[in-house]
Design a protein that fits this description.
Keywords: Dioxygenase, Iron, Metal-binding, Oxidoreductase. InterPro entries: Alkb, AlkB-like, AlkB-like_sf, Oxoglu/Fe-dep_dioxygenase_dom. The protein is an alpha+beta fold. It folds into 2 domains: 274 residues, no CATH class; 100 residues, no CATH class. It is built from 11 helices and 15 strands. Strand 4 and strand 5 form a beta hairpin. The radius of gyration is 24 Å and the shape is globular. It binds 2-oxoglutaric acid (AKG). The site of 2-oxoglutaric acid has 12 residues, from strand 8, strand 10, strand 14 and strand 15.
Length: 438
Amino acid sequence: MISSKAQYKSKRQQKLEQRQSQSKSFTHSTQTPFRDAERNFKSRLPPPNFDNVIDFYNLDLSSDEIKSKIVKIELKVELGKDDDEEKENIFGDYNELKEEKEIIKGERRIAYVVKDLPGFIFIPNPFTPKAQKNIIKRCLKDFAKYPNKNNLDTHYVLPKEGLWNLHEKIINGELDKNDSRCVVPLKASVTGQNSLYEEEIDAKQEKTQKECPQKSLVEKEYQEKEEREEKGEPLPSSGVPILSPSELIKKLRWITLGYQYHWATKTYHLDKRLPFPKDIELLTTSVVKSINGIKFYTNETNENNDKQYFVNDYDHKKWKPEAGVVNYYQLKDNIMAHVDKSEINMEAPLISFSFGHTCIFLIGGPTRDIAPIALYLRSGDISIMCGPCRTNFHGVPRILEGTLPKYLEPNYDDDPEWKIYGDFMSSSRINVNVRQVF
Ligand SMILES: O=C(O)CCC(=O)C(=O)O
């Protein structure tokens, strides 16, 4: 007897599939094309359709339609190449890059553009594994701590030394399990709500009072609470879980660099400007220099049927990286369609670096009604949005499991220091994106 596969599906599974297909047909008739694309890539069952995702590393395997849209261009200057030859290349040693050819497919002089997306530029990974690891370490150890703001600040009293540093101490057995730092206290406890850790806060308060008798911790927290209420920001909640630094580090979603961002009003705190990290500044300056003057023909024509071209004329001498966001994704995370338009200077490009697992990146047009293009962003890849593309909707609907490059795995080489970072990266993707505000 020939059996159909459906016969072996459990009732629960059949119901689930029925519900999903019903919600799909509803979606197609009522949702925007951007939302449709997001739903496709977020779907676990049935799995997404990856047919039209642009893979810049395997263009020869792409459909003719995709091939006809992509143009390979030469960057104006080699990335990381400085007039001062003695200076260490911020993308890593070029000889090392050549030796690692099998795992690093990018070169330092090429980029790709998409004809119907003028202003979007893709640079395949120009980094050595070592340079990538250095930036990942910076994102976890140095950037994810005070005074940079992050998503956990609202609810937790974060350690000044940084969550990552405490996590490292715990893993390395350097912290006694009774040490109070093994648990991150909730802010709600100091603003009068329930918490199991009030004793700890009391102890902290006593210490603060000794060090700074004029201002107790409670007073400071109340002041912060009032400020948050005035600005319409979320208040600390006692309903969030109480966790150790090692558990909480996996809940880190973003931090801000340079001008700190106020998410509730979508504006920058002009009074909270922190020095921008030099290494990230150097990376972006090199990228902006390399794309200054690139030109290509788009798919558009004018009324005389003349082919239109796009030229990126943003002068790299004007580039000032002033604000940045580091996004930390766990495998199930995503970022929905949005436009980054809080900057006063919308002429300057937005530069974005990917590290760790591969993601699906969607980039559309000025509204969600324009169907987005989907592409893979792998570790080390750089994407740039400038010109008309600077205000286009974009998002990350999916991180792809099992795509961490070998050289970022915890035990890939004999670097004992990397092990703990590699463990974190086994379920993560990190994105660093940088903007000029003025
Ligand atoms: O993770 C990415 O590649 C994009 C992040 C992004 O769109 C954003 O932070 O605005």
